[in-house]
Task: inverse folding
């Protein structure tokens, strides 16, 4: 399996991935995000009257794994500062970076199945649509660590990467985690760069999450504040006529201040 896993990782890079690695589904079921967010959503559902979104089949925040899923291959594509358009949304059209990731995973699935007879599943980005917590997968696959900015931080590119994954119906040895933590001793310029001060208050507690592995490392991270900034980014989006759409579209450029402030990988 070691030789095959190396071949799969190299194939991913040949197809355009900057980084790639493998993680075990059994380990991911015990990973921080899968446990923390499922735990929080279940707690939120337990109040009087329950949640209004009762039509959801699965617990919000909980990853639903197929019985065929034994391993996960995660890929990262570098997203440098001089290529901001990789992450731009053109109205509701996928950003170019998303399309690149989807193309790599689609081609990789076809190659794995045709060359090795291993069944694969192209995981959507969103957890609620059949995806998984890509940062956890990346850490267990050896791509990097979770930084004080609550992002995956890689040795090669810092947090300036975009992620996608696929599952395999065969057991492969995990390629991580690795001994890498550049945040130790760092004064966290990422946290000071946030325009919404999302790291200025403790948003997660050990007692509420059921574990001490918290978002932002110590719970000092506010997802709602990030959402406020995203809403502002949408509100100020410019409408520009682009030939391939045949009509004016809004170009949404989401905030990346915490990414750009990180010195790792520059």
Result:
């Amino acid at each position: 399996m070691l030789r095959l896993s190396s071949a799969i990782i190299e194939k991913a890079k040949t197809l355009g991935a900057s980084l790639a690695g493998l993680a075990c589904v059994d380990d991911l079921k015990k990973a921080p995000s899968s446990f923390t967010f499922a735990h929080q959503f279940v707690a939120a559902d337990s109040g009087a009257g329950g949640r209004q979104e009762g039509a959801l089949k699965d617990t919000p925040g909980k990853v639903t794994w197929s019985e065929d899923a034994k391993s996960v291959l995660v890929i990262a594509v570098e997203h440098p500062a001089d290529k901001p358009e990789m992450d731009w949304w053109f109205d509701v059209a996928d950003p170019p970076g998303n399309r690149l990731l989807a193309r790599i995973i689609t081609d990789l699935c076809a190659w794995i199945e045709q060359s090795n007879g291993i069944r694969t599943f192209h995981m959507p980005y969103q957890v609620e649509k059949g995806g998984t917590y890509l940062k956890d997968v990346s850490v267990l696959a050896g791509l990097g660590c979770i930084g004080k900015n609550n992002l995956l931080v890689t040795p090669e590119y810092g947090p300036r990467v975009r992620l996608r994954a696929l599952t395999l119906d065969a057991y492969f040895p995990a390629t991580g985690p690795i001994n890498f933590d550049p945040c130790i001793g760092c004064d966290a310029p990422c946290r000071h760069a946030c325009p919404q001060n999302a790291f200025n208050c403790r948003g997660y507690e050990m007692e509420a999450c059921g574990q001490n592995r918290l978002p932002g490392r110590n719970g000092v991270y506010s997802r709602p504040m990030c959402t406020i900034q995203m809403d502002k980014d949408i509100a100020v989006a410019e409408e520009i006529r682009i030939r391939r759409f045949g009509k004016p579209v809004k170009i949404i450029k989401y905030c990346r201040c915490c990414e750009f402030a990180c010195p790792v990988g520059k």
In short: The two ends are 34 Å apart (CA to CA). The chain is about 30% helix and 15% strand.
